[in-house]
């Protein structure tokens, strides 16, 4: 069991109260290693990407950001050793994650390994997640501080349910929180919460991610009224929803008294093979980790958000969520 109140970072455990301003849903590098091996992306240069990340984190520090949660898990090209090389040159703390990113099916390995399958035994997903959380990721000794799961348009497919079940078991074993990717238009954050709470996860330990893609206040309030926190975590993804409208939703929910149930972030990356830098420069120029301190915070303040609101959204809520729950 992780020590209560201690959050795992690339530099070891820190007290949750020391995290400061936190971007709780970001990525350093998003890749597809098999694709990269066989069909290298012309914009990927590892040395240059590492330098870009180091420079970006330096600017974030100057803007007051103290912690970034990297939600790059299996399925998104996680390489914690590379992240550690960036983190050791940065004052910004990095929290890495475990989980599996699939919206529909898992790789064939998981169809032959597990209870009652060809290679019978415990579910390797649960074993992998718990090992990442308690021993460290891929021999780095760096322990994950967050669990990440996904539902998207396909909904709760059999393999998605398997990932969520493994995450619930790992959460109950370690107390580490669960954050999610959702398809807000389908309102499937509610399905996630029903599934996870049905397996013993307290809603207060769940962040329903990408809720900021929705302007449906009834849906967002229904999520928060369970006790869950919603991720208003795609600022800069204006090809999905303009920031002006994302800000308006946050302000509406602040006025309704939900400051303690929201977190802010970008779901940005210093390099993503899915949406590479050249595409982002043209289609989503504000989709980067400096957007909240540079553009969004001033807009929130202009709309009536107080310093107390901002502290709650960017400091207090992430600290509360990232601190592992005590084992019951």
Automatic annotation (TrEMBL):
Zn(2+) 2 binds at residues 148, 181, 210. Pfam families: PTE (PF02126). Zn(2+) 1 binds at residues 25, 27, 148, 267. One of its GO terms (molecular function) is hydrolase activity, acting on ester bonds. PROSITE patterns: PHOSPHOTRIESTERASE_1 (PS01322), PHOSPHOTRIESTERASE_2 (PS51347). The keyword Secreted does not apply. It comes from the Bacteria. This is Phosphotriesterase-related protein. It comes from Jiangella anatolica.
